[in-house]
């Protein structure tokens, strides 16, 4: 199993999606507990996502329309805010934005660029230029030694 790494890692949103599809609707806190519980104990070096990173993922998912509010759950005390429940928006379960919702929400153009990245095409376009530049640089270095 590939573990998502880093703050708000792209794989974390997929774990949130899987949890929401499994339970139907949940709060960001409930999703955090589920993701944290699923990942704890798998790898001693791995640190599960923080509560804040899950909240940012929920912000991005709401902004993109990937999740929708379905209601509120009362808390144990009246002074606390009620838990807001969300579910995956029907038809958006397999959308590309689940791979990295934070980037998709903050910079849609850059997200589209990353989706279109093909390593082979990139190397095919840039490698000849890099090799040409290195060849010129080496020739220039040979010329400097003779001075």
Quick description:
The chain is mainly alpha-helical and 147 residues long. Helix content is 55%, strand content 9%.
**Major β-sheet annotation:** 2 strands, antiparallel
Strand segment tally: 2
Give the helix proportion (percent range).
Answer: 55-70%
H/E element sequence:
HHHEEHHH
The CATH H-level homologous superfamily of the largest domain: Winged helix-like DNA-binding domain superfamily/Winged helix DNA-binding domain
Placed side by side, the strands forming the largest sheet appear as: 1-2
Shape descriptor reads elongated
What CATH calls the topology of the largest domain is Arc Repressor Mutant, subunit A
Distance between the termini: 58 Å
Radius of gyration: 23 Å
CATH first level of the largest domain: Mainly Alpha
Which band does the percent of strand residues land in?
Answer: 5-15%
- The name of the CATH architecture of the largest domain is Orthogonal Bundle
Query: How many separate structural domains?
Result: 2
SSE-based structural type: mainly alpha
Oligomer: single chain
**Averaging pLDDT over every residue, what do you get?**
81
Which residues form runs of ≥5 with pLDDT under 50? none
Number of helices: 6
Textual characterization of the structure:
With 147 residues, the protein is mainly α. It folds into two domains: 10-114, Winged helix-like DNA-binding domain superfamily/Winged helix DNA-binding domain (Arc Repressor Mutant, subunit A, Orthogonal Bundle), CATH 1.10.10.10; 117-147. The chain has six helices and two strands; from the N terminus they run H-H-H-E-E-H-H-H. The chain has helices at 10-23, 28-39, 51-64, 101-106, 108-115, 119-145; strands spanning 67-73, 83-88. A two-stranded antiparallel ribbon has the order 1-2. The radius of gyration is 23 Å and the shape is elongated. The N and C termini lie far apart (58 Å). The mean pLDDT is 81.
